[in-house]
Amino acid sequence: MASAHSTAFPPTEPLSLQTGRLPWRKTFIALSVPNFRLWTIGNLLAMTAGWTQRIAQDWLVLELTGSATAVGITVAMQFAPMLFFGLFGGVIADRYSKRMLMVITQSLFAVLSLGLAALALLGIVEAWHVFAIAFATGLVTVVDNPARQVIVTELVGQRNLRNAISINSSVFQLAGMIGPAIAGVLLLTVGAGPAFAINGLACLIVIVMLGMLRTDRMSRVAPSPRARGQLREGLRYAVAKPTIIFPVILIAVFAVFGLTMPVILASYADDVFQVGPGGYGLFNSMVAAGALTGALLSTRRASIRLRTIVIGVGVTGLLQVVAGLMPSITLFSACLVTVGLASLLFLTASNTLVQMSSNISIRGRVMSLYVLVLLGGQAIGGPLMGVVIEKFGAHAGMVVSGGVPALAAGVVAIVLARRGQLRLRVQSGRPFVSIAPRN
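Structure tokens predicted for MFS transporter (439 residues):
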């Protein structure tokens, strides 16, 4: 007898996707869809302002406390809600209109950002204020992030979804390059308050742009009806698919150790190279410059396989280890570019593979699990890496942040090989070493 689970969620049907490598003139083919084009403009604005606030927020806490651990706590406050409540966000995203949910979340983001701006501009801000607002922002993100992930399908449909996901990643990384630079200038000239105000105003503009979307041209997904056990269904579905669960495991490890870069880079800027907030913004921009390159390259990717993620995590981790050993600011900055490039290639691949592997009716819950480990892992990793840095130094922190994910990638590769799904192949030519399906 078929289980309720298998009846409700049959195997994912083949999707009408763009296959093969796109010609150069169609690198951004998803932008030919007017709704997605408008969404992308608003997303770039929102992400740039969000990065500006995050960098200013971390540096403000460092100024107020002088503690890398306090910066880690700020990261934890912002991402802890996702760790504890993230799966509920996926259930909400599957039940309600994604556009409506984002109007609500952007409104709340605006209130929180403008409130923090007022505290900073009045000169009465304290570290606990930042912690509290970061936590409240994290609560809103619980709903905003899965809705943001799934709405892309409604905007572009299935055929160009892979290209749209890559463009979204490119936008995020372009914002990650521009935002920290803006934050660095603001911190050097007028302080953190205006950075928070800019983010609040950007959220209000995004609400207007969401209202401009043509709903009649969206591929609306029928909402999931209320039912008992929907969280368990989502988890069972994810665990049953190797193309979902193994990327989620690797992302979880990388989030705890590898994505705590703001904590590490703040210490490099303050203690190692002593370049202040401008240098902190520069370091983040170097990571984002590499990541933007990786995101653009990902739009050219012809296919995505599980081995892409396994190799990507391992390479990114090793590059972070190398960065941790660099003795000069020039070499360190150059390594940050390569770290950003490698990390974005595998992050985009993992996001795409997980979405493509999940049935549309349960995709909100699957992506909430993905976002839970991606953001929730940083809630654990922020304070953890802050302690490592304070006890052993920034160089050791960078080595640990890359070494552990690289080790995890090796373990997953061995597990997959033992299960008969992958084998290591050494050959002449390029690539010299590759992981391939076992015959």
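The chain has one domain: 29-220+230-436.
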